[in-house]
Amino acid sequence: MKVLITGSSGLIGSSLCKHLERSGHTPVKLVRNFSLVDSKTCFYWNPSKAELDTHALKEVEGIIHLAGENIAKGRWTHRRKQALIRSRVDSTRLLVEAIESMSSPPSFMLNASAIGIYGDTGERQVVESEPAAHDFLGELGSAWENALSELDQTKTRSVAMRFGLVLSPKGGALKSMLPAFRMGGGAIFGSGRQFVSWTTLDDALRMITTLASHDGYQGPVNCMSPHAVRFETFAKTLGGVLHRPVFLKLSARMVGFIFGEMGKSTLLTSCRAHPQKLLEKGFSFQHPEIEPALRHLLNR
Q1: What predicted TM-score, i.e. pTM, was given to this entire model?
Q2: For a tag on the chain, would you pick the N or C end, based on fewer CB atoms within 10 A?
Q3: 2-164+200-223 belongs to which CATH class?
Q4: Is 63:4 a contact under the CB 8 Å cutoff?
Q5: 48-63 burial, b if ≥16 CB within 10 A, otherwise e?
Q6: What are the residue ranges spanned by the domains of the chain?
Q7: pLDDT tens-digit map of 146-182
Q8: Is 94 helix (H, G, I), strand (E, B) or coil?
């Protein structure tokens, strides 16, 4: 199977390309760095300028769109928020327009999304039918998924993959946390009672390939372990796996002071998301529990 990938330099995208190659598939990449273009496996695009080399879509059976500015990189100024919106919505719309113009469009398009769309759900477990929140991440997620929904579903099946925290020592949140935790400086943010919805990178890759290969999946799909944990549990479990204490606490007020709205939305918000659609169709998680998952990731 020939699959077009965006975001191929990111944590999930780079690992996905290798995963697909090992499985006998052919990943083709859309890249913004013109020096990487080879007109065979790497093609140029620039979503901010609505530029896309449509040769990248030739004979492609599916598209997996993972590109987007890092949500947690810096404070959310007005300018930063606009960049986050454009990187997701404009890029998705550009791909959808290209697909809609094809006489033989790809059979599926998987689009990254996020559980931020649900907002702060407290103690409640939420599934894919939960409405979007009326905050920045909720509205961002809605706009992102609405751009995807413009596809003609009779020709190209679309799935919005709502990821939680994807854990890997190679990148993302876990890589950022490890230095402090290894030195015994790991901290609990806020009350620590907020739920964290998570998955290992290994399971994330298996979810993506499952969603790509099974026609029964369509619309939003929660992509995380069925066992969300409170942040305090996550932090203390990580400390335990590393044989380091976790006794520091960063109050909600201090999180807001240091990180602003971004910190409040990503570090303090509780989201106990549940992968209902995946479980209903029999998806089997390799690492559903947090402690064995962290031991696997960190070889402990």
Answers
A1: 0.95
A2: C
A3: alpha beta
A4: yes
A5: eeeebeeebbeebebb
A6: 2-164+200-223
A7: 999 999 999 999 999 999 999 999 999 999 999 999 9
A8: helix
